[in-house]
Amino acid sequence: MLKEKIENLKKQFLAEIEKIKPSDKALFELEKKYVGRKSEFIAILKSLKNLTPEEKKKIGELANVTKNQIWEIIKNKHAEISESSFDAKKEEIDVTIPGKKKSVGHWNPISLVRHDIENIFTSMGYEIIEGPEVETEWYNFDALNIPADHPARDMQDTFWIRQKINNKNLKEESLSMRSQTSAVQARYMEKNKPPFRIIVPGKCFRREATDTTHDHTFYQFEALVVGEKINVGNLKFTAKEFFSAFFKQDVNVRLRPSYFPFTEPSFEFDISCTVCGGSGCRTCKGGGWLELGGAGMVNQNVFASAGYLRNKYQGFAWGFGLERLAMMKYKIDDVRLFHSGDLRFVKQF
Ligand SMILES: [Zn+2]
């Protein structure tokens, strides 16, 4: 009787599993019904204890085999269901879709220009010198012949740093963000005797309203050559050589009288228009020249501040804004773009 019951249960199970919807939930219900702890099957196995040892062995074996068969079928069905629920469309790989392009970082136009400039100058035998961006009042102004009451201080209003000096033995010194790379000239000359040729690239700061050609943070670049027989002709020649190399075309240089505290005489220097070559166009407003920077022969007061004997040496210094040069080279119309962090701008280079 138990044997028939087991066989019927199996038949019933097979019929039901054929019909169930292919879902895990329905299968779990079936599993519970036939082989779960409260299933009819378990009840049969529990009732074996009332049988004779011979019957127990015979029926027990049949019950176990059948139970294992049912388990096996359920297990296979589970696998079948999970396989059919696998959505081929979702997992499909289209090998023809173009790959995602990895974005690779690259240089800011300021760095590109700086690199170009450094290459040209080092090929002419110049050394590259750097200095601190936070500078003492002495190096930024006084040593460059700009005493506290000098009007040039207003033109170069910068950011001053509030500081506390705990050590009473130290003289309190005013610190500021340097307003010009010339501060490095003074530092360099204190430790080095002429002749020398150096270039000083670096970041400068000024407290001023920003517009398309002015920013509070900018890069300057300057060249300083000191020796016993350096003259204005050397300055003009060097500038002509440099700009011709930089713009990869013949560039002329024009000096106009100007004033800077640290040079005597001082000049503004222009270069022939790199767009029209000097014949006149919109870029140079018809004049054929582009204003570029300041230059001059180093003031003897600056040499004296560095500890050199007055009138023993002569030298020329000239400088310009890197942004100005980058704007000319890449036709950029707003200086503020360089520090804006706008990727649409930077990614063009
Ligand atoms: Zn022009």
Question: What do you see in this structure?
Answer:
- There is one protein chain.
- By secondary structure, this protein is an alpha+beta fold.
- It has 2 domains: 2-91; 109-346, BirA Bifunctional Protein, domain 2, CATH 3.30.930.10.
- The chain is built from 13 helices and 10 strands.
- The chain has helices spanning 2-19, 24-35, 40-47, 53-84, 88-91, 109-123, 137-140, 152-155, 182-191, 232-247, 300-305, 322-330, 343-346; strands at residues 127-128, 134-136, 160-161, 175-177, 196-205, 217-227, 253-260, 263-272, 289-298, 314-321.
- The chain has a 7-stranded mixed sheet with strand order 1-5-6-10-9-8-7, with helices on both faces. It has a 3-stranded antiparallel sheet with strand order 2-4-3.
- Strand 7 (253-260) and strand 8 form a beta hairpin.
- Helix 1 packs parallel to helix 4 and helix 6 packs across helix 12 (322-330).
- The longest helix has 32 residues, at 53-84.
- It is rod-shaped.
- Bound molecules: zinc ion.
- Residues 273, 275-276, 280-281, 283-284, 288 line the site of zinc ion.
